[in-house]
Amino acid sequence: xxSFIASRIGFAALVLIMLSGFVFTxxxxxxxxxxxxxxxxxxxxxxxAMVRENLGLDxxxxxxxxxxxxxxxxxxLGYSYRNQQPVLELIKNRMPATISLCVGAVIxxxxxxxxxxxxxxxRPGSLADRIGQGFVLIGVSxxxxxLGMAALYFxxxxxxxxxxxxxxxxxxxxxxxxxxxWAWHLxxxxxxxxxxxxxxxxxxxxxxxxxxxxxxxIRTARAKGLSERKVVYKHGVRSIFSPLTTQLGADIAALLxxxxxxxxxxxxxxxxxxxxxxxxxxDRPVIIGVVMxxxxxxxxxxxxxxxLYILLDPRIRT
Amino acid sequence: xxxxxxxxxxxxxxxxxxxxxxxxxxSFDVEAEELFGIAGxxxxxxxxxxxxIMGLLPGAVISGEILFEGRNLLTLSxxxxxxxxxNRIAMISQDPLSSLHPFYTIGAQITEAIxxxxxxxKAEALAEAIEILGRVGIHEPEKRVHxxxxxxxGGMRQRVMIAMAIVLRPALLIAxxxxxALDVTVQAQIINLLNQMRRxxxxxxxxxxxxxxxxxxxxxxxxxxxxGNRMELGxxxxxxxxxxxxxxxxxxRSSPSHESRGALPSIPGQPPSLLIEQKACAFAPRCPAAxxxxxxxxxxxxxxxxxxxxxxxxxxxxxxxxxxxxxxxxEPEAPTKSSDIVVSVSDVRLTYGGRSLFGKNPGLEVLKxxxxxxxxxxxxGIVGESGCGKSTLARIIAGLLPPTSGDVSIExxxxxxxxRASWVDMRKRVQMVFQDPFGSLxxxxxxxxxxxxxFRIQNVAHGAERKTRVRDLMEIVGLNPEHYNRFPxxxxxxxxxxxxxxxxxxxNPSIIIFDEPxxxxxxxxxxxxxxxxxxxxRELGLSYLFISHDLAVVRHVSSEIIVMxxxxxxxxxxxxxxxxxxxxxxxxELLAAxxxxxxxxxxEFAAPLSQGVTP
Lengths: 318, 615
Description:
The complex is a heterodimer. Chain A folds into two domains: 2-73, no CATH class; 87-317, MetI-like (MetI-like fold, Orthogonal Bundle), CATH 1.10.3720.
């Protein structure tokens, strides 16, 4: 048991080390001279050489990597080429928006998807099931940028034409300043990011629950005289937590990609838009910082999934 | 006192193909403390009947009456029915491995049943759960009550199921095939326990099973069902010793424990489709005693002096109607004894695991040095309970799995570490027939191409020639060659097993390994397949390795038997010696559990020798 946890954590650390090596190498293999970018188009060769020396780019790649790892362990991820701001500070400033967006969206899609799936599975073929299935079909068919645009048009632009503001068109308000305003501003982005996943979770929940409800132990529960509610929720839904957790681990890993589009549509100053900007300007320290941060969260999400498994399934515990 | 009284029950279940007539005009009474048996093959309606009593058949059209303690269950509201379930009527089902919720402790599952029907405190319910677990034979129940189902063996889980069912002292307990999924030695313990509990608690038990012999030896009354009809009902002893209905007689005769050698008197044909409304006797097309009237009118109910009732046109009991039965066909031919050894296995060992990333661990020893020899033209039976390594041994002999050490030679040539070409060559000599006729055939391929596969793989016989040979094979195993283009789903279990045998025969092998070939089949179909296997051996001079958990089946087909337990051979010998003078205590235990004569003596079973699990 302890060895299992230790090996999981060890594995997670290994993944992060490999990721940093990979990104750092990519940095050097990619075309373009970072010193030239920093120095600017019209700088002389001597100026470029000076910049290169200042940034330590003239040293061997291994040496640069080792010093990068050493500095990042003490919390120093370097400085942006573009405006000389510390990368860590840039990321810190952008974090609240992205975390608000992602956490809210995950909660929203679980709250939408799982109940719809359960409702469908309880009476397959019923009207409720068909409505649920219709929701799934619509949800999975919409790309998030179309959904974002549609949400903006119908829930911001159209009411605006009519003379009132139903939802703001975008922007981020810090939670601590005014929680109500924070939630109001994030409503449309949350919905945009969550709908597709909600549909996928509804489908997954329905399928898994239908399978579980056919199990022998569900018949045992009914034979005990339990109410249908208890049969479905205590015995049925309990069993689908493990597959849902698996899916959630994978989805959280992919969340940053979806957040990127949503942040662009609604003009949220988050990690996603930071990543887009830094790629456009070839701001390599920032790119590395963002990739490492994303990697860190994916690894942590997977660690949590692994531990949740142990909590959820007694068969793994022993 | 009558606990349950079923009157003229008809059950129709709507399906996509039409209404399945699962029960037709079924009536019976169950008295308090009685063990009432319902026997029948798959599709006879016996399980549907028990679910109808539990009120767990949503959507079914049910007419007639189910009177339980004076109330008609069919007129109760779902809420009233729910209050009865688990409280007054309890159920245990077939597979204890899947019938307990894997994520809750057994204590939580038992106390849940208590809390559902009674207002008691947590501590009180737990104490009651511990008490009942002790009564059903769980050691140290106060500790084990907090364990999860996966920490118990199959037999122990069935004990937990029984504990959960009887904890509220129900008036009626329905046990649907309570022992089918368990090993034979464990089966005896469970039956014993059920018997003991009904005496102690005064619970009436309805036991549903396909094993008529087991049933008749313990049941006070036994009912035999066929295609939704109650064919025969009477005192258990009378049904077993003097069956009134030709179907009951056929079932009893086709069980291999009665005839030790030779062809079994099997019931020809297949059970009818339940989608079609029956107008005459459902069994008439397969009945050896069928008369013209049987095929045109529904048979009357006949009462006999010993209390048996039979749904049949015969005026006398089938057991006394000599003409009604075909003589056992074919004399058993003595297997041609020779000293020609075709399979020789010496000291085969297999260990799983053993090496991991972090140093050595002992690994799991599956086979601990097994040796055997198979003489040409004979059958060697391998008996053992689940987990003893018999199927693993079969796969090693067939060359599908390399052993950790030891040697296997087929017709004098070692089959370990063969190169690709000789391995392919060896495959022509050794073939396998698998247990599950439903899972082992690709559902998307036509039967003709499944049987013709060996020709294609080994690159012999093409086009029209291949087709002719496949048709020949189908004829040899008793399939209609015109069904060449059908899919496996269009065949019954027995026919699918014939397909599996035809495929195995395609390349004229000298050795066939049967891995539990009949355990998934009904008794009447099982007899047909065993007869086919015997006939093919005589006609084609094949050598068989026959693996089964069922000692009666193995005894019937084998000239020599080895008994395996936990990866070792504990006893070997020729069939009759082993059967009549077993040396090893484990062999005696297996025999006791499998032999109906033993069961009858006193109705009690052998003391549970091994409480433990096969590791």
